[in-house]
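Retry 2 of 3 after timeout on previous attempt. Resubmitting structure tokens to design endpoint.
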């Protein structure tokens, strides 16, 4: 068996990243489920069966004590995860609002030679040929990218653009983000 061909099959690519990490990192649904599993993976839920067995075994002669201790444990076990679930819900709503109001049209998926940029487009974003965008590269540079075309690849819409010039006046932009440079009105008048 050739081990050279095994790694791409296991990890999904030549860069060695597992396929599961190729998902959209900005997905509000993904962040919500991450926070929910974080909240319910706590020790309160894992220790409930041994705690209840211990309460019943130690205080079986006093049903009133068993009832009070069981209610106290239930408040501890259910109260904290419920509180965390509410906090995760609020954080998910804020994250969802941030993604919707974000000016980014997508995230750089890869850069091909010579100066071809592939962008995984966000929902409701526009990538029309000839539109000018600004992209933040991984090395810290920012470039103007002219949109060439968009195509559907699996569940994502990918935009292809050409790096046309480096930005002289940098703007605040996270690494890998792509935003529209000018409003369509300004672009038509030029």
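Retry 2 succeeded. Sequence:
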């Amino acid at each position: 068996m050739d081990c050279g061909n095994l790694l791409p099959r296991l990890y999904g690519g030549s860069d060695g990243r597992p396929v599961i990490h190729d998902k959209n990192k900005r997905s509000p649904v993904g962040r919500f489920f991450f926070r929910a599993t974080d909240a319910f993976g706590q020790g309160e839920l894992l220790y409930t069966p041994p705690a209840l067995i211990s309460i019943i075994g130690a205080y079986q002669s006093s049903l009133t004590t068993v009832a009070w201790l069981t209610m106290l444990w239930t408040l501890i076990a259910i109260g904290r995860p419920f509180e965390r679930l509410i906090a995760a819900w609020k954080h998910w709503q804020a994250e969802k609002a941030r993604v919707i109001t974000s000016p980014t049209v997508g995230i750089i998926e890869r850069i091909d030679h010579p100066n071809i940029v592939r962008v995984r487009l966000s929902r409701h974003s526009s990538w029309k040929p000839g539109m000018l965008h600004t992209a933040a590269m991984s090395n810290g540079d920012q470039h103007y990218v002219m949109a060439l075309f968009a195509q559907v690849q699996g569940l994502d819409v990918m935009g292809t653009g050409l790096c046309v010039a480096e930005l002289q006046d940098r703007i605040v932009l996270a690494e890998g983000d792509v935003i529209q440079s000018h409003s369509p009105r300004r672009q038509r008048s030029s």
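Attempt log closed. The first helix runs from residue 6 to 11.
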